[in-house]
């Protein structure tokens, strides 16, 4: 396996909706329930997993009406990492101001998330393994200064420095075509494989070729989200040291 080093050096310093599952044994049922407001034509949504779209819906035609869509997925014990994204084209959500609408996410009839007051867009990730999204990021601390093990080519961390200072992050010498992303917030719907939304970013500009390296100024006591990505998937499944 290729080696991938991540080096950190301090240089300075509602209501559930009961449903009956129609799924087979060994499957779970994911249900999206939408209660429309007075402007149902503004609402669209999509439910995806890594392999693609599972469900989608909207725009709708009827006010104050509940629409439900369900899908069965395998319950093999492995995380599916599902993402639900709901949009309102006018930008006022579906719960407030013009009727009372809402969305609900359920697994086998048990509510796991709900909302409605989201402005233009809301997104929910669930059933994800540690490190797969910024919502499931693994926390780094001072005890992790030095080499950090990373079992996949794309992984999320949080890091809250203890003091103001310059911090170095690098994968130099790993042999991996890697990219470093550092953010001040977590919203998976806003992130892609570019520097959009980052405060620091490196893709072979940091001084060690296609391996990433950045020395950055971070504020003590502030939480940051860090993603190490394999730019061409050459480091997928690597054993880090």
- With helices defined by DSSP (H or I, 4 residues minimum), what is the helix count? 0
Oligomeric state, counting identical vs distinct chains: single chain
CATH top level of the largest domain? Answer: Mainly Beta
Order of helices and strands: EEEEEEEEEEEEEEEE
Question: How many structurally independent domains?
Answer: 2
The percent range for strand residues is 35-45%
The chain-level mean pLDDT equals: 83
Classify the secondary structure makeup into a structural class. mainly beta
Low-confidence regions: 1-20, 237-241
Please give the radius of gyration in angstroms.
21 Å
- Provide the spatial order of strands within the biggest beta sheet: 10-11-16-13-14
Distance between the termini: 10 Å
Name given to the CATH architecture of the largest domain: Sandwich
Task: Please give a structural write-up.
The chain is mostly beta strands. The protein has two domains: 7-12 and 130-230, Sandwich (Jelly Rolls); 27-126, Immunoglobulin-like. The protein has strands at residues 7-10, 27-35, 43-49, 52-57, 66-74, 82-88, 102-107, 110-115, 121-126, 138-140, 154-159, 165-170, 178-183, 200-202, 213-218, 224-230. The strands form four sheets. It has a five-stranded mixed beta sheet with strand order 10-11-16-13-14, with no helix packed on it. It has a four-stranded antiparallel beta sheet with strand order 5-2-7-8, with no helix packed on it. It has a four-stranded antiparallel beta sheet with strand order 4-3-6-9, with no helix packed on it. Strand 7 (102-107) and strand 8 form a beta hairpin. The chain is elongated and about 55 Å long. Residues 1-20 and 237-241 have low confidence and may be disordered.
